[in-house]
Structures are given as C-alpha cells and as structure tokens.
Amino acid sequence: MYQTIQLIDKLEHTSRLTKEEWIALIEDRNDKTAQYLFERARYWQHKYFAKRIYTRGLIEFTNYCKNDCYYCGIRRSNRQASRYRLTREQILECCSSGYGLGFRTFVLQGGEDGWFTQEKLLELVRAIRKEYPDCALTLSLGERSKESYAELFHAGADRYLLRHETADDQHYRSLHPPELSAERRRQCLWHLKEIGYQTGTGFMVGSPGQTPEHLAEDMLFIRELEPHMVGIGPFVPHHETPFFQETGGTVELTLYMIGLLRVMLPALLLPATTALGTIDPLGREKGIQAGANVVMPNLSPTSVRKKYELYDNKICTGDEAAECRNCLNQRMKNIGYELVIDRGDYRSQIKEENHV
Ligand code: SAH
Fold first, then answer.
1. CA 89 to CA 97: how far, in whole Å?
2. Which has the minimum average pLDDT: 89-98, 291-300, 340-349?
3. Ligand 1 centroid vs 110 CA: distance in angstroms?
C-alpha cells in the first residue's frame, strides 16, 4: 500500500509514470488506496471546475455502420438491429429542444454510415453552426481522412470524439476485424489534434482480454496525446455480438481509472458515462465523485433511442430529453454538484496558472 500511495503522489507531482509503475499502481490497488486517489482527484476537480458539471447533448443520428467491431451492438453483422437515420430536420429539432433545455454543446454521434456523404455532413455542420453560433459542435463519426476532418472543422465543427479503444495493437486486433488497426485509429487522433479540434479519446474498461499492462499502455498513450477529453466506461456485453458471453467491466476499476486520469491531467474533461450508469444505478454519481466533470445525456428522439443499442440494458432509452436533463440535475444536486449552462470548453490556461 505504501508503494501505491507513493505512486499516486508521484503521478500528482510529475504527471508521468513508467509502464512498470502504471502496472503496479493498477494491480496493487485496494479500497484504501482508491479512497486516497479519489481525494486527490476531487482536489483537482474542485480547483479547476469547482462543483460545476458540464453537459453535452448527445444526438445519436444513425445506427448504420460499415464496421464490425466484436463488442458493439450496432456492428454491421447484427441482423437483429433495427436501423435508422435521423433526417436533417430531426437533427435540427434535437438541437432546438436541447438549446431550450440549456445545452450549449451538441454531439453528433453515429456508426460509420456512408449514406451521410462528406457533402451531406458539411451541409449539416454548416446549418447547425449558423443557427447556434454560441454552441460547441462535437462530431463522433469514426475514422475519416485528414482532409475530411479538416473540411468539417472549417465548416464549423469544433470538437471530435474518437476513442482509441485500446492502445495495445494485439489487444486491438482481438476486439476488431482485420481491416481495422490501432495504429490507424491513433493516426486519426493525431490528425484531429493537428487540425485544431478539441479532441476526445478513451477506452473501454474490462473489455475481453484486457490486462493491467494494456491499461498501462492506455495511460501512456493518453499522456503522450494530451487530449482535451477522455471518455471511459465499462465494457458491457451485447447479446447479438461475438462477445455475448464475456464478463463486463466493473464499476470499481472504471472509477479507479477515472481517478488516475484526473490526477494525471487535472484539466481534462472527463465524462461520467452512460455505460457506467447502466451497470450501477448510481454509477454516474460515483463517476463524478471519482473525478469526472461532464455528463452526456441523450437528445435523440425517443422513437429511436432503443435502437442505438451499443450494449445491453442501456439506460434512459425511454425518456424525453427534458426528463433526462431534470433527472441528471437532481442526481448532481444530491451529491452537491450542479449542471451548468456553458459550452464547457477545455481551458488549459488554468493549468498554467494553478498547477504547482
Ligand atoms: N462510430 C463512432 C462512435 C462509436 S460508439 C466511433 O467509431 O467512434 C461510441 C463508443 O461506445 C465506442 O467508442 C465504444 O468505446 C463504446 N462501446 C461500443 N460498444 C460497447 C459495449 N459493448 N460496451 C461498452 N461500450 C461500448
């Protein structure tokens, strides 16, 4: 335990650990060291963000996908998935109701759906940018060429979410079909940063075959990339995928990884994810108490909610956007935090002012 606490202190003071140190810090954790970690994580969370929680309105605009990731419920081989695409009008309607509810960031997320050509996407981005000049627009559309990312950026998208999923090449191959590679995924992230997007990456906790060494590699990659956001959540099996019989990730390890991320990069935007709320009724609250500072409720029309089923038992699939906002408002209040009406941009300058 002594060594683990020392490693947490070293991480806090230097922001870097070796791979061996990361492995030890992850393997040798226990309840006491986790409590110590969460205290340090809340110290930095409070220093940078006070008790303010940022919200992003998630619009799941298509569940068509050309990819076949072994863990994902909307993979192309899942013939049971009922496929949908929102129209431009429906998407703008989601933004409009979201704006009224206090959202100032919209996240367009979907499968890799060729029906939405570059032209259609550019038009959509321009339309949202024009109507909501005061809002941030985040895209989460998977892997694209650098040129495509750059055009979308210049059309008005300011942020992009693309989880690296796992930084270990071999582990990545065990989660994806041969045509996908970890290296290509990481290359996309470097492109996004070069273009100027506020960039989010992330990984699943407890995905099949994941070891502490893999998690150590994830932390080293994130330190190197220095993204603005990191989204992590437990792997949750989906009944129509090859991983239907695999064990899911745990709340305990997910919270621990959130705490480590907050202490490593104190200004990070860290969502308490829907997957975490799915495996524990108080998962998102616990995520905030472990150092997270963002929640991403759903703005998609209720008619399609159930269809964007990446994993089993996903929560909030029956609720209207307003209900989700109110529910989260109350949940955050219960633990002494508040949802704010703010774009919630990444502000690295706080780090330079306050970091000791
Ligand atoms: N097509 C986009 C959006 C992917 S869905 C892209 O490629 O980025 C968003 C995230 O959901 C994925 O990055 C993955 O980490 C997560 N996800 C998918 N299936 C999951 C599962 N079974 N359990 C937990 N998270 C899952």
1. 12
2. 340-349
3. 10
